[in-house]
Task: inverse folding
């Protein structure tokens, strides 16, 4: 098998897993299972970024979203448990059908606009290989965006010191 064919198969497989994870978020009834489906979605998106050559964005996607944010979501879900009020089932199911139909129409329109429409075939172009690399991001942080980078680092330091002070006051 050639490497381009193998890359395409891997891309389509990861895309299918990401789509299944997104559908799991929407259709699973248990909030914990929906959050775990979202973790799977975030993780596969990070792997897709790796495949496309953006290692920095891929590792950030996996560490920040699949790691930290989803742990926070799971803690909140487990603390709140299942405190949802009861709804009228017949009204909810009618709305679900209408929203499902509208979503299907929007998805078909997007597929037509992005895949079938011949004017969109020449979209994009060749991207610079250093785009999204850790070296390019670090260079832009310390040259072009040095002041915003320093301000954000001071804000993070203030947040860390503030949370330590609040935690010390409670204990």
Result:
């Amino acid at each position: 098998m050639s490497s381009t064919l193998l890359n395409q198969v891997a891309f389509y497989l990861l895309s299918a897993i990401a789509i299944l994870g997104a559908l799991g978020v929407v259709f699973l009834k248990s909030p914990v299972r929906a959050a775990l489906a979202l973790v799977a979605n975030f993780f596969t998106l990070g792997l897709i970024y790796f495949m496309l050559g953006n290692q920095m964005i891929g590792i950030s996607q996996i560490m920040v979203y699949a790691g930290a944010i989803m742990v926070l979501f799971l803690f909140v879900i487990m603390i709140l448990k299942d405190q949802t009020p009861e709804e009228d089932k017949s009204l909810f199911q009618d709305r679900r059908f209408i929203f499902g139909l509208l979503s299907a129409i929007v998805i078909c329109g997007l597929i037509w606009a992005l895949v079938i429409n011949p004017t969109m075939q020449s979209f994009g172009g060749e991207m610079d290989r250093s785009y999204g690399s850790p070296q390019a991001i670090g260079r832009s942080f310390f040259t072009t965006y040095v002041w915003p980078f320093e301000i954000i680092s001071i804000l993070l330091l203030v947040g860390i010191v503030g949370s330590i002070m609040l935690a010390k006051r409670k204990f």
